[in-house]
Design a protein that fits this description.
The chain is of the alpha/beta class and 422 residues long. It folds into two domains: 5-218, Carbamate kinase; 304-421, VC0802-like. It is 36% helix and 23% strand. It has helices at 17-28, 45-57, 63-80, 87-102, 111-136, 163-178, 205-215, 249-257, 268-274, 326-338, 363-371; strands at 5-9, 35-39, 142-143, 183-186, 189-191, 197-199, 220-225, 246-248, 278-282, 291-294, 304-318, 343-348, 352-358, 375-389, 403-410, 414-421. The strands form three sheets. Strands 3-4-2-1-7-9-10-8 form an eight-stranded mixed sheet. The chain has a six-stranded antiparallel sheet with strand order 12-13-11-14-16-15, with helices on one face. α2 (45-57) packs antiparallel against α5 (111-136) and α7 packs parallel to α9 (268-274). Keywords: Amino-acid biosynthesis, ATP-binding, Kinase, Nucleotide-binding, Transferase. GO terms for molecular function: aspartate kinase activity; ATP binding.
Length: 422
């Protein structure tokens, strides 16, 4: 039986009409049977939908932003299709469904579930436009709803995969289709046992590609980005970056764990377990080799720099003159888990626990409310978390010039500092 191949195109690769045309050109000589194309929402659509949700939650007008988002997608369609094309009615219908969802009541208690029912429209709309354009260009693909095969639990915004059910669905429904046509689908979304839409975590389209790849025993997974491959730092933030020609699964997983944005953190594990190579390639230079992530990569000693912004440093201090014990740490982590807040850095002292977390809408306030009776709590917002893997001690001071360092720690292979501009 023929191997399946997975291509994933992120938001930057479908951000406007020119980008969609470029995607079609990439596929023109690569489109074949047994290929799945996974697409993300267009450009910053997910950010826009999150802004709409924030306005609704705070009792502010959100209809104007919704209208702007609709106009954005309609104008892309106007550049890609003739005025009488069926895509306009399809997009109109999807925005109608989105508006119906936005009219329902939203509160802090149902925010995560409501979020998934709204934010999924970014991927649904994007995939419809791209699929219709490919077919309009005589590049025939089957549009398929990822929720028909990606089965999850009901942990909204961070849904966990039901691997057995997902594998069976992929093999029984999509595998026969792929023998005749390539499939185009959405990243980031799935459905729970009750048929409700779930999402897999922010930027989760990479993970979708890995799920489909492992479920269908793919020959490889390719992620198309606006960078030439995996770099040792974000070129928008740091000069003189280096591209890795290849990376081992473990090195790549470590980079994503600490926040490297080029690949979603959950992507590597299923591919590593299945021995499926992952390619990161440039949609701006599609014939360049990119980076290959696989089992037999040669180790390297190039330092990798990861910078996470919008970080909060929180210190929990015991109030009864005792020392920090396991029960205190357990209590803090219990609340973090309940609120789905991930710890990016942890440091213990005799009388306090300090953690660094991402800023998340209203979740931090809930954390403080839950624990304020048990600890004296202090925090700083608007910080950056700098992580350097395979650091060279003599190079670290240069990264801290012009910054106040609130917390730092170092191991043999990793340096981390919480910093803010002075």
């Amino acid at each position: 039986m023929a191997k399946t191949w997975i291509y994933k195109f992120g938001g930057a690769s479908v951000k406007d009409a020119t980008a969609v045309k470029n995607l079609a050109e990439i596929l023109r000589n690569r489109l074949r049977k047994n290929l799945i194309i996974v697409v993300s929402a267009m450009g910053k659509t997910t950010n826009s939908l999150e802004g709409i949700l924030a306005n609704k939650l705070n009792g502010l007008d959100f209809y104007e932003n919704s209208a702007i988002l609709k106009t954005f997608h309609r104008e892309i369609c106007e550049e890609l299709f003739p005025a009488n094309h069926a895509v306009f009615a399809q997009i109109e219908n999807l925005f109608f469904q989105l508006d119906l969802q936005l009219q329902k009541p939203l509160s802090r208690e149902n925010y995560d579930e409501f979020y998934d029912q709204v934010v999924c429209f970014g991927e649904l709309i994007s995939s419809k436009i791209v699929a219709e354009y490919l077919c309009y260009q005589d590049l025939l693909v089957l549009w398929q709803d990822a929720r028909e095969v990606i089965h999850t639990d009901s942990d909204f915004r961070f849904a966990k995969i039901n691997w057995e059910k997902t594998r069976k669905a992929c093999q029984s429904t999509w595998k026969p289709m792929l023998e005749n046509f390539p499939i185009l689908t959405q990243g980031f979304i799935g459905k729970d046992p009750k048929g409700r839409t779930t999402t897999l975590g922010r930027e989760g389209s990479d993970f979708t590609a890995a799920i489909l790849g492992t479920s269908l025993h793919a020959g490889s997974v390719t992620i198309w980005k606006d960078v030439p491959g995996v770099l040792n730092a974000d070129p928008k933030l740091f000069p003189n970056t280096e591209k890795f020609e290849e990376l081992g699964y473990r090195e790549a997983a470590e980079m994503t764990y600490f926040g490297a944005s080029v690949i979603h953190p959950k992507t590597i594990k299923p591919l590593a377990n299945a021995g499926i190579p992952l390619f990161v390639k440039s949609f701006l230079n599609p014939d360049a080799p990119g980076t290959k992530i696989h089992e037999h990569a040669t180790p390297h000693e190039v330092p990798t720099i990861v910078l996470k912004k919008d970080q909060i440093l929180v210190s929990f201090k015991v109030t009864d003159f005792t020392f920090i014990e396991e029960k205190h740490i357990h209590r803090i982590y219990e609340q973090l888990q309940a609120l789905k807040l991930r710890v990016n850095m942890l440091q213990l002292s005799a009388i306090s626990v300090s953690i660094v977390i991402d800023a998340q809408l209203f979740k931090f306030e809930q954390l403080l409310e839950k624990l304020k009776g048990e600890f004296e709590i202090r925090y700083n917002e608007g910080l950056e978390l700098l992580t350097i893997l395979k650091q060279k001690a003599e190079e670290i001071p240069a990264f801290l010039i012009g910054y106040e360092v609130l917390l730092e720690q170092s191991t043999r292979n990793t340096f981390q500092a919480v910093r803010r501009k002075v």
